[in-house]
Amino acid sequence: MKKYANYILLGLALATFIGSVLYMQLRPSDKPAGKIPKGAMAADIALPDRNGKERSLSELRGKLVLIDFWAAWCRPCRKENPHVVSAWLEFRDKQFSDGKGFEVYSVSLDEDRNAWLNAMQKDDLAWEYNVCDLKGWESPAARIYGVDRIPMNFLIDGEGKVIAENLRGSELHDFLENRIRQ
After folding, report:
1. Taking residues 162-168, what's their average pLDDT?
2. Separation CA 136–CA 146 (nearest Å)
3. Which of 77, 51, 62 is nearest to 147 (CA)?
């Protein structure tokens, strides 16, 4: 009888171990879903702007679009904002080989509406597509794009395909300059 009890305990231990492994593999993850790779179609997102109007990324189809994830409290983001503003001002009306014009779709990961609005004003983020759901890191947009740090950005072409990511400072200007239709 004692011999069978050992086998039963061993079986229970093995079943518990296998169950734990399966649970860890199949459970929903708390981590971001994963970055959308270069060449893939960008996932559509729709979030409210400063006036509460829902703004969809797909509304910008046909243009080169920088999807820019940032937050008012993020110092590196705030240091990057002047470069994004400069690129938008310089390239918004240009014709590109893969898009007509350049637009920025800014996704704020702020939870404080006033901080978000104040940062937009202070940093001169004048484009229409400044959006925020005030959910911070829990924003579905951040999860869809695998955002695990900010600033983070994705550049999509007129067809909606990701053509670059995390272009900073002069890299963004240079990349856009090289895509201008000659």
Report:
1. 95
2. 14
3. 77
Residues with Cβ within 8 Å of residue 80, at least 6 apart in sequence: 70, 151, 168, 169
Confidence (pTM): 0.81
Could you give the CA distance from residue 131 to residue 95 in angstroms, rounded to a whole number?
25
* Cβ neighbours, 10 Å, residue 61: 16
CB-hemisphere CA count at 13 Å for 137? 8
- Specify the pLDDT at position 25: 38
Tell me what the mean pLDDT of segment 34-45 comes to: 88
Bridge-based pairing of strands 102-108 and 130-131 is parallel
Q: Work out the number of other CB atoms within 10 angstroms of the CB of residue 88.
A: 21
37 or 59, greater pLDDT: 59
